[in-house]
Amino acid sequence: MSVLICLIILIQPYLNIASITIQDPGDIIDISKDTADNAIKANYNVMPVMYLLSPLQATSFFNGTQSSSWISHQTFSATANDTNVIVVGNGAQLNLSFVNIVKTGYSSNLLQASFFGVNAAINIQNGSRVFFDHLNVTTHNGAANLYSYGNGSYAYVENSFLYSSGPAAHGLYAGGYGTVVGKNIAHYSGGNRCSSFAGDAPAGYVTISDAIAHTNGIGSATFYALGTITATNVIGYAANAPALFSDGRQTSVFTNCDLTAGLLAGTVMFSSMIRQQGAMLNITNSRLTALGSTMPGLWFGNVIATVYLYNTIINTASNILVTANYSQVTQDFNYYAGYPDNPNLLPAIVTINVVECSLTGQLIAYNGSSINWIMSQYSTWNGNAYSGYGNSYISISLDSTSIWNVTGNTMLQNLTTSNNSLANINSNGYNISYDSNSTMNSWLNQTTVSLTGGGKLMPAIPGQSIITTTQVTTSSAKQQTPSHSVSIFSIPKTFILHLFSIKIFLFLFFH
């Protein structure tokens, strides 16, 4: 017997607030039965080998350019270790509709699983193409739901429910230049390092729309970018991870999304090896929430990145919008790694373009890192900026339509305003120091200027440090964790304005 749950959301343009209820995918299955499985930690202590060690094993093979199959209303399963349920290879095409897929059995080598899809429930390889609808994919013992590997490999999945337990069991997963497209997807994973939608080396191309995702394990982000992530109309809750991990020169684009993170930061962009240039994040008509008391909205380490925020809300319990640091994250994705963990890091260099946003929080740079904060098109920022440790660099730019409400003493490398006007800076009694030796500040002529609100803009004194009015805790505070249900939230009028009619399906699943 099958059950189709359909939720239609209507957002009228004249409403200021619209409240909707979304069913959490974690409420559909009794996840308590997988507690032991989810307690297993991912083990990457294996010799790195960048080729497939042995031929893929599967209970069902679809192989060759002459192979094209259409299958519906069946169940496929596999129980052996290092074994796929379905392998589609060498140019084959497979269409599945109303199909159950169940996978148990462990992976003996998580690098082989990550790079080649060994032990995944569904593995699409070497230029093959699949079109799936109304799947129910359940995996245990650390098996990914679906993996697309190789140039020309393409997986399209819609109206489907994905569940996994155990370590490194991603939902929709692409690597080796493979592509996966998901629409109307519900996903839940309980293990560690189990992102809902992920790319892997050297690149995976992942496009997701109209999806609901809930991850519970440490390091299990809603999105993991190695390649390109494109997401539209996605609700994501990562209880013990950021909404996004982005490693190196990757691109992530989020439109009309509501993403919540419970550990480290709202988004984490870093380079796991040498510092890379060209990382990009674009967030439009969306909301990003960081729950922990020390979590910034956006975090950067050992990377050169550009961010575009358009009509987007960032909520943080920490009052920290942005952190840039000489740092990265550990292999377990459970804390930030510093110099003792890796002495070959470089400071983060970040440019953040803020368009039609109203944001609140601090900008903090550490250890030689830099933040370039550019506000335009009627943006408002309530916050201050300073160096958390060492000599770091923060630059602020405002156009004539944007407003900065200063919330604490601030030290800048550069300050740029339209027509050299300071009228749109409300100091609230706080002072702003600037680098008088910077050519970008030559328009200030090394002078001290009174600001609206009683504060002053003045040249920095050599060796000057900023005493902030807001205490920032650097110890590992207990993260704020909401109740299991994350189904209710409010949407401002300016949020998801284009979604006058959204259809989110909580999908056909059957027993």
Average of per-residue pLDDT values = 88
The major pleated sheet works out as: 18 strands, parallel
Low-confidence stretches: 1-17, 465-511
Strand content: over 45%
Taking all Cα atoms into account, the compactness measure Rg is: 24 Å
End-to-end CA span: 7 Å
From the spread of the alpha carbons, the general shape counts as elongated
The assigned CATH architecture is: 3 Solenoid
Supply the CATH class. Mainly Beta
Tally of strands: 45
Class inferred from helices and paired strands: mainly beta
Number of domains: 1
How would you concisely characterize the structure shown here?
Keywords: Membrane, Signal, Transmembrane, Transmembrane helix. The chain is mostly beta strands.
Describe the model.
The protein has 511 residues and is mostly beta strands. It has a single domain, classed as Pectate Lyase C-like, CATH 2.160.20. Helices cover 2% and strands 49% of the residues. It is built from two helices and 45 strands. The strands form seven sheets. It has an 18-stranded parallel sheet that branches. The protein has a 13-stranded parallel sheet with strand order 3-6-8-10-12-14-16-18-21-24-27-32-35, with helices on one face. A four-stranded parallel sheet has the order 31-34-37-40, with no helix packed on it. A hairpin with a 5-residue loop joins strand 42 and strand 43 (456-459). The radius of gyration is 24 Å and the shape is elongated. Mean pLDDT is 88; it is low at 1-17 and 465-511.
